[in-house]
Design goal:
This protein is of the alpha/beta class and 866 residues long. The protein is built from 27 helices and 28 strands. It has a four-stranded antiparallel sheet. Helix 9 (365-376) packs across helix 14 (497-512), helix 18 runs antiparallel to helix 19 and helix 22 (717-736) packs parallel to helix 24. It is globular, with a radius of gyration of 35 Å.
Length: 866
């Protein structure tokens, strides 16, 4: 047994096996293969730092699908790459430089970008190592980066194509502005938190009278840029003020009182201060009513010269001083505590500032409609289905996408301006503006060669939305593009369904006339003990490699999947990884036992096999059916639990124990091979190592084929009866604290064929249930504990036992069964349920009802005999 160590050592095994897979090119698809393609594009990890546990869950999910499909005869490609992550990476590098007292402005753009490239290379090396250590079957020969020269050319082409179609435009709008990052943000890059705040009631005097109109605001500092007060035209309280003018406090500027249906009479006072340059809804009101726009803030959220003597103050400092001045002049009516949604930059958590700015936008509604239809028609299927509603809601209410960012790290916008004839103040004129894939040599309007490029870069998501096809050669008709696009499956977290999933569908249809993938499998979030999503920005995730060093990659992957439900976010704990490690040890010990007791033959032959061999083979057939059904709906967490239960309990706790009484070398070896093949997608390293130890036929388990059901040719239901009976007797021992060394006397009343089977297999029953004597088919008059199962009643003679306690237990079981019976009856009597449930489900429910009724009747009979 020296060639099969007593303990599995992942540290001495995993990296050796991964190098073997790489050397044999098992992760690369065959370009001449006639097998059907199966392609997954990795959701690009950002080069902001090491991978988190969320990445482990996401990538393990994908690896499982790739290995499963490969074993099922598909030509698999899992394409790897990383995202430059514009704003997120720039913030990280800025923070690093600030620890040395260096600001990016001190370096200049080119030197700063060079510094970010250094960061990118360092982080990319760490990420590659993490992905390898986790055992992922990624095709490293096709690795991509969204800011590479080749990929950048495709991003530029997409911009130019949309611009030439009139889908990209430049406009002055209210955008989300981060005063820390000094850039625009899309709506999806902003997070909302509810914070305690104040609601300030401010009196605006009405010109030419002693009246005033009171407005309510949470941001009194913005009042310096007010250009109107707006009320609802149907609000009788203020109807007489409409058309008059109010005096803006502090600024002493006259502003009109206007009316618009937009105003909610029930909120605050029903009178709205209109600050068009600092609120998106006020901006729309200003356009409608032709109001002046007064921007009182600098990009860093300090007030500017238009705020007069508050010039240079931070927005919150200015708020305090403005409120003090209003109090001093008697214009504060009251101040109330108020909880308000605070919008923050998702990267640096600074409170964003609505800011009027000239930005580049993509028209989204023309792109959204075909993508909405693709899901509706089933061309793209989303799992679990409940996320379809979120997808539909976002698509139906989509707004134009602000794609320009005031950053240095990213794809420069391919827009060029002529110094000779371009006038930035003429927003409606395109004179002196050129949009091109390569830098123009002269102005298309005046011929001047004095040209400069737009300083802004594109939103990160503008490059990642073309990921599925840009990585395969598009716009060229390459062999990879023809063979592997469209891809089959996308696996990602539900939190980026609109940031990325929806946009990829839009881009795929727009630029390739095909949906980029057929299925979208969304998984839950891994959260820390505080319930926060594990993320690089929060730094709240354990380092996966440290967990691998401690537990092994298989234990980490499998343990994580075991605790992860399909539709509910989960709190991470190292205890789950310990469960994974124990499972690895269980599997290894089982394999070692079979290796030591079996020969080289591994085949199931019904005619030469015991009923217990047939039972384990039949159990595996049922397991295969469940696994394949779960794979069809991407329920990998359910598969992990099925595998755990089968291997630990059915195979190890029962079958291997049966073999001690009824040996069977060939079937045990045959079953071990099948078990490690179905476990391989989940636990690739240990299954490869066991496969090699056994010397099975192929070079690697990765070259194996997914098992098919075998023809058992025997009725194994009586083994289920034996297993169930032993479990129930063990439960009775537990309830009454009867030790295993205390042998029991039992009476079994059952159908003739069941009794005959039990008599033939009494050795099993005596050994595993601790039975001394067994009587068959006789009336039980003495007090006894009872086990009632379909087709069998077992009475256990009890001495020195609390009979009242036994009665209480049976009454509780009757109550439980009554509840289950009522639930099933209600479902079967519900027309809505019956119309939606499949025939298989309805039949299963009817069978459960029958079983519960029989069990309840049996218990009630037993109660009379206790």
């Amino acid at each position: 047994m020296n060639d099969f160590p007593s303990k599995y050592d992942p540290s001495g095994t995993e990296e050796r096996i991964y190098e073997f897979w790489l050397e044999k090119e098992y992760f690369a698809p065959g370009l001449k293969s006639e097998k059907p393609p199966y392609t997954i594009m990795i959701p690009l990890p950002n080069v902001t730092g090491p991978l988190t546990m969320g990445h482990v869950l996401n990538n393990s999910f994908q690896d499982i699908l790739i290995r499963y499909k490969k074993l099922n005869g598909y030509n698999t490609l899992w394409l790897v790459g990383m995202d430059h992550a514009g704003i997120a990476t720039q913030v990280k590098v800025e923070e690093k430089l600030l620890t040395k007292g260096i600001k990016k402005q001190d370096m200049g753009r080119d030197k700063f970008v060079a510094e970010v490239w250094k960061w990118k290379e360092e982080v990319a090396t760490v990420i590659r190592n993490q992905l390898r250590r986790l055992g992922y079957a990624l095709d490293w020969s096709r690795e991509q980066f969204t800011l590479s020269d080749q990929y950048s050319e495709k991003v530029t082409r997409v911009f130019v194509m949309l611009y030439n179609k009139g889908m990209i435009y430049r406009g002055e709008y209210i955008i989300n502005w981060c005063p820390r990052c000094l850039t625009a943000l899309s709506d999806e890059q902003v997070v909302t938190e509810e914070n305690p705040g104040k609601l300030y009631y401010i009196r605006y005097p009405i010109i030419g009278s002693d009246d005033h109109i009171t407005v309510a605001t949470t941001r009194p500092e913005t009042m310096l840029g007010d250009t109107a007060v707006c009320v609802n035209p149907n609000d009788k309280r203020y109807r007489h003020f409409v058309g008059r003018r109010a005096l803006l406090p502090i600024m002493e500027r006259e502003i009109p009182v206007i009316a618009d249906d937009y105003v909610d009479p029930e909120f605050g006072t029903g009178a709205l201060k209109v600050t068009p340059a600092h609120d998106p809804f006020d901006f729309e009101l200003a356009r409608k009513h032709h109001l002046e726009l007064i921007d009182i803030m600098n990009p860093d959220a300090t007030l500017n010269a238009l705020a007069r003597h508050f010039d240079g103050l931070d927005r919150y400092e200015a708020r305090e001083k403005i409120v003090q001045q209003l109090k001093a002049t008697g214009l504060i009516e009251k101040i109330e505590d108020y909880r308000l949604p605070l919008l923050k930059c998702e990267r640096c958590e600074t409170a964003i500032e609505p800011r009027i700015s000239k930005q580049w936008f993509v028209k989204m509604k023309p792109l959204a409609q075909p993508a909405l239809l693709a899901v509706h028609q089933g061309k793209v299927r989303i799992f679990p289905k409940r996320w379809v509603n979120l997808y539909n809601h976002w698509m139906e209410n989509v707004r134009d996408w602000c794609i320009s960012r005031q950053l240095w790290w990213g794809h420069r916008i391919p827009v060029y301006y002529c110094n000779a004839c371009y006038d930035p103040d003429k927003t409606d004129s395109e004179q002196g503006i050129m949009v091109a894939e390569t830098r123009p040599t002269q102005c298309s309007s005046c011929g001047s060669g004095d040209i400069y490029q737009d300083e802004d870069v594109l939103d990160t998501w503008f490059s990642s939305w073309i990921w599925p096809f840009a990585t395969l050669g598009w716009p060229e008709d390459t062999e990879d593009y023809r063979r592997f696009y469209p891809t089959q499956t996308l696996v990602t977290g539900w939190d980026i369904i609109y940031l990325w999933v929806a946009r990829m569908i839009m881009a795929g249809i727009e630029f390739t006339q095909k949906t980029p993938f057929g299925d979208v499998a969304l998984h839950v979030m891994i959260r820390d003990a505080k319930g926060r999503k594990m993320s690089k920005s929060l730094g709240n995730s354990p380092e996966p490699v440290e967990l691998i060093d401690k537990f092994g990659a298989d234990a980490l992957r499998f343990g994580l999947l075991l605790i992860t439900p399909r539709e509910q976010d989960v709190l991470f704990s190292e205890k789950s990884i310990e469960v994974g490690r124990k499972f690895c040890n269980k599997l290894w010990n089982a394999a070692r036992l079979i290796y030591s007791t079996s020969g080289k033959e591994s085949e199931y032959r019904p005619e030469n096999s015991s009923i217990y061999d047939a039972w384990i083979a039949d159990s595996f057939n049922k397991l295969l059916t469940k696994i394949n059904e779960h794979f069809a709906t991407f329920e990998v967490n359910a598969i992990a639990r099925e595998l755990y239960d089968y291997v630990w309990h059915t195979f190890c706790d029962w079958y291997l124990e049966f073999l001690k009484i009824v040996p069977s070398q060939a079937t045990a070896r045959f079953m071990m091979k099948r078990i490690i093949i179905v476990l391989h997608p989940f636990m690739p390293f240990i299954t490869e190592e066991i496969y090699r130890k056994f010397g099975f036929a192929r070079e690697s388990i990765m070259a194996e084929e997914w098992p098919e059901p075998v023809d058992v040719k025997k009725d194994t239901s009586h083994v289920d009866v034996v297993v169930g009976l032993i479990e129930e007797i063990r439960n009775i021992r537990g309830i009454f604290n009867i030790k295993i060394k205390e042998r029991l006397q039992i009476t079994v009343n059952a159908a003739p064929e069941v009794s005959a089977f039990l008599k033939d297999n009494e050795g099993i029953l005596r050994k595993f249930a601790g039975i001394d004597g067994i009587d068959y088919d006789r009336a039980v008059k003495e007090s006894a504990a009872s086990v009632i199962m379909p087709g069998i009643e077992c009475y256990i003679k009890l001495t020195g036992i609390d009979m009242e306690r036994e009665k209480s237990r049976l009454l509780q079981e009757i109550d439980f069964l009554t509840q289950r019976i009522d639930e099933i009856k209600n479902r079967l009597n519900n027309p809505k349920y019956m119309s939606k449930a499949s025939n298989d489900v309805k039949e299963m429910e009817k069978q459960r009802l029958e079983d519960f009724l029989k069990k309840k009747e049996g218990i009630q009979r037993a109660m009379k005999r206790l």
